[in-house]
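Problem 12. The chain below contains 181 residues. Write out its predicted structure in token notation.
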Amino acid sequence: MVNRSSRSRFAIVIAAVLVVASVLFWGRSDLPRYSRAEFVITEPAVGLRLSPTWKDKLRKWLEQRRARIHPQPDNHTFPPHATNRCAIAAILDQCMHITVTRYVIDKDIASGNVLFGYTNTMKGSAWGAAFENALEPGTIEYWSPDRKGFRHESPILIRYPEYKTVFVVPPKKADRFQRKL
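Solution.
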């Protein structure tokens, strides 16, 4: 027979788990709403076996949380790279893995490319910032199905640092994602 003190301990443990889960997973977000049909979202790949055990899943989850809370972008270095065309979605995906910033990229822009290069060795955080700087004032080139031709324009990067998220959108969609002050 289970005594009352073990029941009350069990209830306290369950309540504590529910409080922690609500704080971690159900926080209020001020991010604008967006559709996955319109955007490409950079997300870390889950590196698990085909049939992972619960320990593997827990270890991977803890690794992702640690990397998100305590990123170490300067552990990565990049050698000099000549200026040439770079795929926007691919480079922003690399930036996401290094800086732990999620990028929400308009599908048209994600399929485009931009001129990018640098002359000296860079640490991870400087490299990510350099690519973001190449995107913003730089003219990107992407295929526009509406025009049935290539489009050349500068995307707008809208940052939400408290959520470690950056929206990369064309100027015509920018006002939809601007912060309301």
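Discussion. Residues 36-44+74-181 form one domain. Students who got a different answer should revisit the alignment rule from Section 12.3.
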